[in-house]
Amino acid sequence: MSNAALKTPRSIVYLSAGFVIFWVIIASFPFFWTLWGSFKVQGDFFSKADWRNALWGTRTIVETGGPFTGAGYHGAWVQEEFWRAALNTFIVVFFTVVISLTLGTLGGYALARSGARYAFWLLMIALVFRAMPHITLVSGYMLPFFQWNLWGHLPTTIIVLVAINQPFTLWMLHSFFLNIPKDLDESAKVDGCTQFQAFRHVIIPVMWPGVITTGLFSFLLAYNDFAVTSMLLSESNRTMVPAIAGFLGSTFEEGNVMFAVAAVVSATAPLFVLVMFFQRQIVSGLTAGAVKG
Amino acid sequence: MKHRTFFWFILPSLAAMIAFIALPLVSVVIQSMHVEHEQIMSVTENCGPFGCKEEVSVDAEATAALRAESPLGRFNGLGTYFDRGHLASQEVATAWQERTSLGDFFSRLYNLPLYKAIAFTLTYTFIVTPLVIMLGLAIALGVNRLAPALKGPTIFVSLLPMIVTPLIGSLILFWMIDAQGIIGKSLQWIFDDPELSLKASPTLTWITLMVYGVWHGAPFAFVVFYAGLQTVSSETLEAARIDGATRWQQVRYVVIPHLMPLAVFVSLIQLMDNFRVFEPIIGFSAQANASSLSSIIFTDLRGDVIRFNSAAATSVITIIGVAILLSPVLIRTWRDFKGKAV
Questions:
Q1: Which of A45, A110, A274 sits opposite B9 (nearest CB)?
Q2: Which end of chain B is flanked by fewer CB atoms within 10 Å, N or C?
Q3: Considering its fold, how many domains does chain A have in total?
Q4: Chain A, 83-112: which have a CB under 8 Å from a chain B CB?
Q5: Do A62 and A139 belong together in one domain?
């Protein structure tokens, strides 16, 4: 294959490499800049005089004595008790993922194995539900939840997030189960298993790659949600994303913007770790729906 | 699978969706047809030295009691839908009658909150979606040429804008484009205008929001296209080369047709996601210059006075919009399904 015709002209190599470098900078620079800036004081991060102050930390040295300061993190985590929000996020995300995977596996399996017309309609309805802006549903919840005193609690939010998550989970797991050969559970049924036993003993052991991938996306949905958590949680139960929005609304005094910057960096860190460990699953999950139609 | 077994397997999932997606939809429709109770007026007779006068005053206590007793309010039919905050039938009719030109009509229309939100939502959806697809394809073609050792790290970095929480991602960019932030300062320097601020004018705000949208959406298109590129048949490419196709012709007539089904998939997902654009408007504090259907619902629910009926009416209109947007897809899938069944 190594003939002259295959050799790419120099200009195209440079152009394409240059474009990729350009994209990598656009994609990553904002994060590094914010991470770097979160250890500075506000006078450097938003510099009236010279943006290069943020690089050297001119004001930070004047104000704190060193080029780096953890004041933003201290303010956010200790003074404004951001750890509460982090704990709430952990609770909400954990239970949302576990419950939606449990319900989604059962439902997705049933949809994949039933050829009936109503199964198709359920999938179509799920697609419509998936497209609906979450905030439109929230406006349906608010009044009844106020009336029944359900508003503001973590369990309410978890159940709502599970439900909003279901259409997507069903679609994804449905396509994963379609890939597991039907013969597997059919033969178990021939051997005398009920449908549930076949599912329990034959399907569950082989389904984990699909479940983990789906779980990653459920995690992202619950972790990244703003519409539901900001409307349905009371101030003391707030998760991280609405808490960050709260930092901005109430505290625009000197220095307090840095609390929000530090909180933003703290909330992004778990996502970095997630991508680092599960890059392959995320990529395969994104393409699964596309390739299988 | 037996119908009974199917039912038991799907039940938990179905119950969750009915209780928390279908019923809220019913609740939204009901709320949109009600309006808060009017204030109760009480007439008291006030007799003074110059004869008796009847005075009408607001009975605050009775009003509060009534509103607390039935928070849904009174039935209003479709009244909320046609008021000034929503479809504004009257205002639209006046604008049409008094128009001096078509442009004038649209600028009058743009002053009405719902039409303003629709204008932004649609512009955003139909500008960001194609840009995302083009940028994603370009990145995929570029990354595909890289040395294998570089591919992994590049994909890792490329995923970041998509994976980051939308509100957080928009805040990060918002701080950078601040007049005192790095991008804001650089732009002032480039255009030699110390007063330049991306937040000041509606046009610049719209552009900023769309740039964010493309930044956030491109990784998804990239990943899907990149996976598709791995399956382009090298034999077809070689055949095209032997027939004398240039590099561009190979991309145009072999690679792009191969990726076409993927592009349909990406644009469907992107249309759905961009139509509900919401977090960037909050993150960029852009409510003054740009509002989307989702963000005006948020404002209704978050204001000093919570206006359930107004939020509900906008929600119903939004859902109808989603249905219209999705209808071609649904019809096509239905035809495919019927084709398979026969």
A1: A110
A2: C
A3: 2
A4: 102-104, 106-107, 109-111
A5: no
Q: Are residues A45 and A136 in the same domain?
A: no
Q: How far apart are CA B168 and CA B279, in angstroms?
A: 9
Cβ contacts (< 8 Å) between B323 and chain A: which residues?
128
How large is the ipTM?
0.89
Contacts of A253 (CB under 8 A, 6+ apart): none
Residue A291, chain B, CB below 8 Å: the answer is yes
Q: Structural domains in chain B? A: 120-290 (1.10.3720.10)
Residues A158, A193: one domain? Answer: yes
**Domain end among A74, A96, A116:** A74
* Same domain for A32 and A164: no
Chain A residues within 8 A of B19 when measuring between CB atoms = 163
B175 contacts on A by Cβ (under 8 Å): 34, 37, 45-46, 257, 261
> Of A139, A142, A145, A151, which to mutate for an interface test with B (greatest number of B Cβ within 10 Å)?
A139
CB contact under 8 A, B9 and A122: no
Residue B56, strand partner residues: B43
Q: List the 129-148 stretch of B: residues with Cβ below 8 A of A.
A: 138-139, 141-143, 145-146
- Residue by residue, pLDDT tens for chain B (342 residues) are 788 889 999 999 999 999 999 999 999 999 999 887 877 777 777 777 777 777 777 777 887 787 777 777 888 888 888 888 888 888 888 888 888 888 888 888 888 889 999 999 999 999 999 999 999 999 999 999 888 889 889 999 999 999 999 999 999 999 898 888 888 888 888 888 888 888 888 899 999 999 999 999 999 999 999 988 888 888 888 899 899 888 888 888 989 998 988 888 899 889 989 998 999 999 888 888 889 999 999 988 887 778 888 899 999 999 999 989 888 888 887 887 777 654
Quote the domain boundaries for residue A22: 4-74
Q: What DSSP line would sit under A168-206, residue for residue?
A: HHHHHHHHHHHHS-HHHHHHHHHTT--HHHHIIIIIGGG
Cβ atoms of residues A144 and A85 within 8 Å: no
Judge if A8 and A48 occupy the same domain.
yes
Residue that finishes a domain, picked among A40, A74, A108 = A74
Q: Are residues A153 and A15 in the same domain?
A: no
